[in-house]
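May I ask for a single protein's sequence together with how it folds?
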Amino acid sequence: MVKEILQILEESYPFDGKCFLDYSTPWQLLFATILSAQCTDECVNQVTPHLFAKYPSVEDFADADIEEIEKIIHPTGFFRNKARHLQNTARALVENHGGEVPFEIEALTAFPGVGRKTANVVRGHIFKIPSIVVDTHVKRVSARLGLVKSKDPVKIEHELMEILPKSAWIAYNQQIITHGRQICTARAPKCKECILKNHCASPVNYN
């Protein structure tokens, strides 16, 4: 069944390698992903052009006025915590990594505000390291398909790693997120239109 699901996803949402978040450098993707917590990618992409123009380097973030960062990122929500996370991550990058984003999962998750989801976004898109990103869409759709049993994101990540071929991990992230946004929504999923309805383990809703 997994093979068929992956084939349908690739046919319907051909993977082009692009990220949903806009960025030009590795650290910009790291910061954009931190901002995306409890916020839409669209909102983050509206904020980051101004943010990265004002602070074009991690050194600039490290030395910035925290209140100025807060003002810019206010639309993303939880702006005070996120501003601290950005600045402290910038300082850690400068002090401990020579301003370069590390690829190790342990090093990435040591930054404030960076969990496995954020770390895996960076590892997959920047370093091309096969990684499973468990966001709300991947969690919801994978469960509805019957691919995972756990509700814990870390356990879900490892469950998916066991059943999906490593070569499909990054594409699966993007494709399931797209499917979750367009069809398999949290409320009122469009089951009648679903390309995966014949492989779904959840009750079909044709309303």
The chain has two domains: 2-15+132-199, 26-125. The chain is about 55% helix and 0% strand. The CA atoms of residues 18 and 44 lie 16 Å apart.
